[in-house]
Write a structure and sequence with these properties.
The protein is built from 21 helices and 2 strands. The chain is mainly α. Strand 1 and strand 2 form a beta hairpin. The longest helix has 35 residues.
Amino acid sequence: MFRSGLVWSFGNNFISTSVVIFLAISHGLNWSGPYLGMLIAAPFLAGVLRSFAPVMIRRVGSVRKFCITAYLTEIVFLWLMLVLGRPDYLSNRAALACITVFWCLANLAEHCGTVAFFAWNGEIFPEKTRGRFFGMRERWRMAGEMISLAICVAVMYVWENDAFLRESVPKYYVFALLAAVGTVFIAAGTLLLGKVHDGKCFKAEKSGATAETLTFRGVFRELLEPLSDRRFQPLLIYAAYFSFITQLEQAFQLTYPAKLFGEKTLFFGAGAAFVAVQTLRFLIRGGQVILAPATGAWIDRRGVVPVLVFSQFVTAFGPLFYFFAAPPYGWVIFGSALCYMAYVGLNVGLPQVQLQAAPPGKGATWLACYGAVGGVFAFTGALLGGAIYQDFPYVDFTQRVCGGCPVLRTVFWVQLPFLISFVLRLGAVPLLQKIDN
């Protein structure tokens, strides 16, 4: 499991949302256009279909086989996206459509595989030590991402500083090559899962499935079952709220470094905004590598809800560093890494609390429901955030909120979304406190 997490995450980081956005930019995507919000939002909507993963797991008859198949299917969709989305193959509009559609399908396959993966782990690891397992897995996963992140930055540095490469290799093919290499490691990490034994409850559930449970009515009833679980409802409310507010700010967060450091400013021969984003991501993951095992052990000793509450509270202060970062003090943005490191508590704890709330043998259904609810609201938040960003009055550091007010004369309109994000993120803390540990 640990080796698989390291290799899989190493490859997966080569084909992140940021990489897909850069692929789309090579086709003429405008940072301020509505397509940016749609490209961020669409995979979340596709992920809602993960609700059917438990039914498909029963039909396959093996949670391990379904998990591996889903991840390998993701690779097929990623290759279709890279091949059909080439700038020399289709028109810009058609290529953008291919990138969007196959990116959504790849995300759907990954979401279904992840539902099976965590349900599988819930079966083979006892609850009293599951936090430590998830913590160690998070360490290996973040370590893989850090390595691939460093490679991505190095490749982009070489391309930006070599005139021959820039003229002979379009930027699309640089990112496409990174993505293609990533799929190889995703496949290798997936195949390593074949060495782990299968979950026992899924085989029993398969053998005990009746004809009624496989009908449309039975499937629909099963999909709605977690929604009526009063113990699970506070967690679903949190999923809806937090997914919405985090995606609402994504269009602003992705474009903020370019506004802060200048879109054409170079740093060590590469775009300063690109270097800033990658450095921030590297710092966050480095902190999570250090904190992940201790977080898992803390969950096993004290329970998962206190860890979730503490992590949510600390991460809420991350946007404040974006708010206070303004020219010439752009370096302040790196302070957010100290807060976003606390995401490790959410990454380790949320799968654990979902499994705890699920009845025996129903882990996949409860996990899928949580992901589907979060996906609907994440889609809505990302789409709305993209629309707000498009119509936002001042998206750079040229207009102050109020030049005559002593308090507001140093605040620009472009900073306000992060102050609002801070307040909204704090609002998620009471929601977590209502969860039954």
